[in-house]
Amino acid sequence: MDIFDVLSAVSKSRINLMKRGITKHKALMKAQRVVSKEYHIPLPDIQKLVGDEIKPRSS
Fold this sequence. Notes:
Elements: H1 3-19, H2 24-39, H3 43-50
Helix pairs in contact: 1-2
C-alpha cells in the first residue's frame, strides 16, 4: 500500500462519515483512526500524511 492508497482510504472514509452528519473535523479524525486500525499503520504516520491542519471553528 502506497501513500496515495492511504490518502484515498482516509478521504473515502471521511466523506462517508460526513454523509452521516458528522462535522468535517470529527470525520477526518475518525477516518484517520479507522484507516490506522484497518491497515495497521501507526496513527502519527497517517496524521503526517494528511497534514492534520484542520481546526474546528470556535464560533
